[in-house]
């Protein structure tokens, strides 16, 4: 899956779940079904939040139906989402793949999609953070149960918990990428040519499938960030254990000042520009296709 897709899923988890929920209790009849099925992502999200808030109220908890403010794409963002070379180049020249730039340019307004601005976050955080540990456990149990209710009534889908909803969304996106990206003959050929170019420049390429080529550079520098963080921490091993089947290896953010992170970002920018130069034709085709998949999954799951 592409970097944009991964971050979209991460944000979707926060948006849909509204907290760190656990497996919920049976949903019961805690909310009324909407009068008609929703069609757009925004309508689905609005119904989802409304049902969820009503369900939480009936369980004795305060929950604010939350709709993130929609910010229209800029012209440059639209160009990048269409795979425009010059627009992608301008962004990478400042942010690289978007890993160490988070330390040098935090919350920059034109940051990549993998550097989301989390300001204006879900107001429900102010509610559950003030609860005692026992109350918090009950709150998130209720959240999970209400997500089950809201998912069926607003999205028309069956889930067993809030985590199950996120996993179903992730699985839908992954299947779409496998079928429409990694199974695309043109992208397979372009990814192979990109890999040859990068290898000639001295970069290591271990997997030439299109989805892996799109995240290769980002993953490499994310691993560097994780190595730094592990050396700084005493509560995690310096070398991570291999993830179990079906698991994603956990990475950690480092403690770096902008000045300390700048040399890492400089190397990342060079690598990102080389990646784009070798993948100029690849990203022209890949980016709009991956964006279309992300949009379709968002419309299906409401976020």
Give an overview in words:
The chain is an all-alpha fold. It has a domain at 76-118 and 184-301. The chain has twelve helices and no strands. The chain has helices spanning 3-17, 41-58, 75-81, 85-95, 101-104, 125-128, 133-155, 162-180, 185-200, 210-232, 258-278, 280-301. Helix 1 runs antiparallel to helix 8, helix 3 (75-81) crosses helix 4 (85-95) and helix 9 (185-200) crosses helix 12. The longest helix is centred in the middle third of the chain and has 23 residues, at 133-155. The two termini are 17 Å apart. Residues 1-37 and 115-119 have low confidence and may be disordered.
Shape call: globular
The helix-strand sequence is: HHHHHHHHHHHH
Radius of gyration (CA) equals 21 Å
Secondary-structure-derived class: mainly alpha
The tally of strands reads 0
Mean pLDDT across all amino acids = 84
Strand content: under 5%
How far apart lie the N and C ends? 17 Å
Q: In which range does the helix fraction lie? A: 55-70%
What is the number of helical segments per DSSP (H or I, 4+ residues)? Answer: 12
Main sheet makeup: none
Low-pLDDT runs of 5+ residues are 1-37, 115-119
